[in-house]
Design brief:
Elements: E1 8-11, H1 13-18, E2 28-29, E3 32-33, E4 37-42, E5 45-52, H2 55-69, E6 75-80, E7 83-88, E8 93-95, E9 100-103, E10 105-106, E11 109-110, H3 115-133, H4 143-156
Antiparallel strand pairs: 1-4, 1-9, 2-3, 4-5, 5-7, 5-8, 6-7, 10-11
C-alpha cells in the first residue's frame, strides 16, 4: 500500500494493544471502526491525527483555549466529506505502515482531504511539533516514548 499525506486511514487493533500505555484515544466505539485518521508521511514514520464528529464538544475546548491563550492550534474544526469534523492535533501519534488496517474509502474511492484543509492541518501540526521540540508538550500521547519504540521496530526489520 502506498501511504500518502492528506489521505484518511484506519489503524489496526494490534497497534492499540501494543501501545496501550501511551495515552492514546480508543480505536473503537460502539462497535464501529474509528476514528478516521488524517495521515502525515515522514519517511518511515507516519503521523496519525484523529478526526471526530463531536464538533460541539471540541468547539467548547477551542473557545476555552482561545480565551486563555489567544489562539488554539491543537484542535481545528473543518469540513471534511461535506461534514464538520474536529481535527485533534493534540491526539496525534506516530506509527508505522505495518499498523495501517485500511485506507478510508467512499464508493470505492480513497478519501483525500481538500488541499486548503490539508495545509491548515499541516501548519498547525508543524507549530505543535515545534513547541514540543522547545519543551512545550501539547500532545496527549507520549510521542517521544512511542518514537523510540517505533525506531527499535525499524532497526529489527
Amino acid at each position: 500500500m502506498t501511504i500518502k499525506t492528506g489521505y484518511l486511514y484506519h489503524i489496526k487493533d494490534e497497534f492499540f494493544e501494543k501501545f496501550s500505555n501511551y495515552n492514546l484515544m480508543k480505536n473503537h466505539e460502539k462497535g464501529k471502526t474509528r476514528p478516521t485518521y488524517f495521515t502525515i508521511k515522514e519517511q518511515d514514520i507516519l503521523w496519525f491525527i484523529p478526526l471526530s464528529t463531536k464538533v460541539e464538544k471540541y468547539q467548547k475546548l477551542i473557545d476555552i483555549k482561545t480565551k486563555k491563550y489567544g489562539y488554539c492550534n491543537t484542535i481545528l474544526i473543518r469540513e471534511i466529506l461535506n461534514r464538520k469534523h474536529a481535527i485533534l492535533i493534540q491526539n496525534a501519534f506516530p506509527t508505522l505502515e505495518k499498523y495501517i488496517d485500511h485506507i478510508h474509502v467512499i464508493n470505492g474511492n480513497p478519501v483525500k482531504v481538500i488541499e486548503t484543509v490539508k495545509n491548515d492541518i499541516l501548519k498547525n501540526f508543524e507549530d505543535v511539533m515545534n513547541e514540543h521540540k522547545h519543551g512545550i508538550n501539547l500532545f496527549f500521547a507520549d510521542i517521544n516514548k512511542m518514537l523510540k519504540a517505533l525506531d527499535q521496530e525499524l532497526i529489527k526489520n
